[in-house]
Amino acid sequence: MTWLAMGTPQGEGAQGSPFGMMVPMLFIFAIFYFMLIRPQQRKEKARKQLISDLKTGARVMFSGGIIGTVTNVKESTFIIKISDGVKIEVARGAVSQILEKGDKPEEEK
């Protein structure tokens, strides 16, 4: 019975190949890529296209919650009219939504 307590000798243990350990890791990475990374890249590409197509007169909402109308489009910024006689200059990346006439901003999820 003492041979059971001793276990297997040091050099004779079952060892998995390094390739066998990499397969599950690659599988998990592929799942993350197709479930998280790729959809986010598509969403960001669509957002950039939407911002680049923005024209004068469009109603927009910015990440800070400001809603206004685009009055001038510059290379990296927009001039936005937020009230009568009040215009501000904001970066293109700050646009979070493009609103149609009469639309209300969507709630963040």
Question: What strand line-up does the widest sheet have?
Answer: 4-3-2-1-5
Q: Uncertain runs with pLDDT below 50, 5 residues or more?
A: none
**Sheet with the most strands, sense and barrel status:** 5 strands, antiparallel
Put simply, the count of helices is 2
Structural class estimated from helices and strands: alpha+beta
What is the chain-wise order of helices and strands? HHEEEEE
Average pLDDT level = 83
Q: Identify the CATH class of the largest domain.
A: Mainly Beta
Question: In which range does the helix fraction lie?
Answer: 25-40%
**CATH fold-level name of the largest domain:** SH3 type barrels
* Total number of distinct structural domains: 2
Distance between the termini: 63 Å
Folded structure, characterized:
The protein contains two helices and five strands. It is α+β, with helices and mostly antiparallel strands and 109 residues long. The chain folds into two domains: 33 residues; 45 residues, SH3 type barrels. A five-stranded antiparallel β-sheet has the order 4-3-2-1-5, with no helix packed on it. A hairpin with a 3-residue loop joins β2 and β3. The longest helix has 35 residues.
SSE layout:
Layout (H helix, E strand, L loop, with lengths): L1 H5 L11 H35 L6 E4 L4 E7 L3 E7 L2 E6 L3 E5 L10
Antiparallel strand pairs: 1-2, 1-5, 2-3, 3-4
In short:
With 109 residues, this protein is α+β, with helices and mostly antiparallel strands. Helices cover 37% and strands 27% of the residues. It has helices spanning 2-6, 18-52, and strands at residues 59-62, 67-73, 77-83, 86-91, 95-99.
